[in-house]
Amino acid sequence: MARRGLSQHPAQAADGSHLLQDRPRHDPGRAEVTGPAVRRTVLVTGASEGIGRAIARAMAAEGYAVTGVARDKTRLREVIDGMGEGHAALVADLATEDGLGRVVRIVRQSPFGVLVNNAGIAAAGPFADVPLERATAMMNLNCHALVTLAHAFLAGAQPGDALINVSSTLAFAPMANLSVYSATKAFVTSLSESLWHEHKARGVYVMGLCPGMTATRSQPHSGADVPAGLLQSPEQVAATALTGLHRRKQPTVISGTKNALFAAAVRALPRRTTLRMLASKPQSPAPTAQPF
After folding, report:
1. Neighbour count for residue 5 (Cβ, 10 Å)
2. What angle (nearest 5°) sits at the alpha carbon of residue 27, between those of residues 21 and 33?
3. Do 115 and 82 touch, CB atoms closer than 8 A?
């Protein structure tokens, strides 16, 4: 079923979602006509910082009308305001059923051409020491919310549309003290590859984007933590994502040559060797970082 445009005033969707906008009559996700061309549209989750913010800005620079989703209203507003006119902010917490449900309804009702499933969290530490609530919250956001939004998007996707699921290079290598996080990213990559195959014949592209260590606000990664050559900026990851989107060829896109070599190496090594190698890496105490 094709998605329909929102019929309500853009500041208040049918489900009560709060859409903070730059122009009074802009519907988030609805394509705008600028001259003879129809403006492309994208919804980016986790758009208030890090990789999500970088992807939102990069896609806005390419002419997309961006709807950013995040739970922090102030930071999200700053991002949207900084991208100029024609973009929208949707304040919602995807870790809650209410927040997730509101975004799902927007996706179903609006003709977004691209969905970027970026929102995610990590909790570091020995498995038994991490509170169960944190582990289940990680699975809910990294997997349940991602699957729910992907399903809503693909059910109405048209030829030329694209889904980007942000995963990690840890999808290829389980890491001690990040056990649940690694497992969620293995799930995301496996799912993305399957969906790529399922939907390529209908002209819908699905990408699993796998960044490595990335400098973000929540995890700045000092030189003592990570070798400089292994650390990427969110902007570098966003550039890789857009290149992959333009090419529309690979189901899994790894950001950076060194990360691609790492992924190839760990897949070739015996599993015990990979586990031992990654277990020797220094661990950051930041519990909400997304290290890979």
Report:
1. 11
2. 110
3. no
- Taking 80 as the threshold, does the pLDDT of residue 20 lie above it? no
In which residue are the tokens 């922090």 written? 72
Asked whether the beta carbons of 248 and 81 are under 8 A apart, the reply is no
The packing angle between helices 179-199 and 146-155, to 10°, is: 10
pLDDT digits (tens, 9 = 90+) for 224-252: 455 556 688 999 999 999 999 999 999 99
HEC string of the chain equals: CCCCCCCCCCCECCCCCEEEECCCCCCCCCCCEECCEECCEEEEECCCCHHHHHHHHHHHHCCCEEEEEECCHHHHHHHHHHCCCCCEEEECCCCCHHHHHHHHHHHHHCCCCEEEECCCCCCCCCHHHCCHHHHHHHHHHHHHHHHHHHHHHHHCCCCCCEEEEECCHHHHCCCCCCHHHHHHHHHHHHHHHHHHHHHHHHCCEEEEEECCCECCCCCCCCCCCCCHHHCECHHHHHHHHHHHHHHCCCCEEECCHHHHHHHHHHHHCCHHHHHHHHHCCCCCCCCCCCCC
List the catalytic residue out of 112, 153, 172, 181. 181
> In whole angstroms, what is the distance from residue 186 CA to residue 171 CA?
4
Torsion angle of the four alpha carbons 252, 254, 258, 260, in this order, in degrees rounded to the nearest 10: 0
Is residue 205 among the annotated active site residues?
no
Query: What angle do the packed helices 73-82 and 50-61 form, to 10 degrees?
Result: 30
Question: Does residue 138 surpass a pLDDT of 50?
Answer: yes
CA dist list (Å): 9 to 33, 225, 269? 18, 48, 56
